[in-house]
Amino acid sequence: MQVYLDNAAxxxxxxxxxxxxxxxxxxxxxxxxxxxxxxxxxxxxLDEARRTTAKCLGxxxxxxxxTGGGSEGDAMLLRGAARACRAKGSHIVxxxxxxxxxxxxxxxxxxxxEATVTVLPTDAEGRxxxxxxxxxxxxxxxxxxxxxxxxxxxxxEPIAAIGAVCREAGVLFHTDAVQAIxxxxxxxxxxxxxxxxxxxxxxxxxxxxxxxxxxxxxRVEPLIAGGEQESRRRAGTENVPGIVGLAAAxxxxxxxxxENAARMTRLRDRLISGIEAAIPTAILNGxxxxxxxxxxxxxxxxxRSEGLLMRLDLCGVAASAGSACTAGSLEPSHVLLxxxxxxxxxQSALRLTLSSLTTDEEIDCVLSVLxxxxxxxxx
Length: 379
Ligand SMILES: *Cc1c(COP(=O)(O)O)cnc(C)c1O
What we know:
Layout: E1 3-4, H1 15-21, H2 23-26, H3 37-57, E2 64-67, H4 70-84, E3 91-95, H5 100-111, E4 116-120, H6 130-136, E5 141-145, H7 159-169, E6 172-176, E7 195-199, E8 210-214, H8 229-232, H9 240-255, H10 257-278, E9 283-284, E10 295-299, H11 305-314, E11 317-318, H12 334-338, H13 343-346, E12 349-353, H14 360-377
Pyridoxal-5'-phosphate is lined by residues 69-71, 74, 99, 101, 147, 151, 176, 178-179, 199, 201-202, 210.
């Protein structure tokens, strides 16, 4: 039995999403920017995908720009918003537990003299404080970037409170909502968010297709120049099949959110209590309450993640250590270190992430092999 519990890294595409995409490879293959009927059909698909995407987020179609995924979206919004705000200042506030797509981009901007960055710590559960954001904002602060939910430990951030602080101070608020989509409700009409990033492959859509939300009136200089696409905000012929797939997956994720979240929460809690009952040394990383429905992250002191992952893989269980991007390197996770974990505890972390496709049988399977694997590897 193959057990897939690495859904924070990527998800399986739904057959319904694939079916929605298929006509846009060989039949409706036009370039949406052309002046003939082949193009017009592709343009129509693009318009419809934009309307669907906007509706699912509570946005207007003109506020959606399609991208090549989450990393591109983060880079585009951080760099583009900072450039558009140059006259006001270049101070940017972020948190220590952001995805590397945010942290590395801001580091590069700082190294190039394009930004001065303040990286806020979190509490022991990975929560960023809105009060601390307020205290860090200066007259030259232009942007605050705090993720909606963390990809490693699943902590849900108080983005409503953080956004409210930003709005009051006249500072732009960006949130990387890549992990939140399909798991917790995100409505940009109800939340004080100016800029938001999402990517389709984290909610059963295709890889290499993403979108950003840019609140009406907020200026973001384009990262990629050379064409009029996306209202001159992102040049390049649109990935029509990918965008159609993104919209189809987002609609399914949004419509099924309440039901899927309840299901995943039940399976998540069964997994956590099963692990804690069988392995008394296990330490849950992150929050017990403000936690994504799909996330389990536990440390087993004395057990190295790499060995455990290999053993689980032999049993047919696909899991992860920290984030997929740091797996393979022996660096302890920057997120777990930010939560105050020792390097030893950080290097013994196991992340199991569920999706709406996860079954009770998969949870049973993990619970039947994990305790033995941990026991064998304990020193
Ligand atoms: C996966 C992920 C990204 C990167 O998205 P890609 O589409 O893989 O580039 C960015 N931020 C978070 C929080 C993620 O989990």
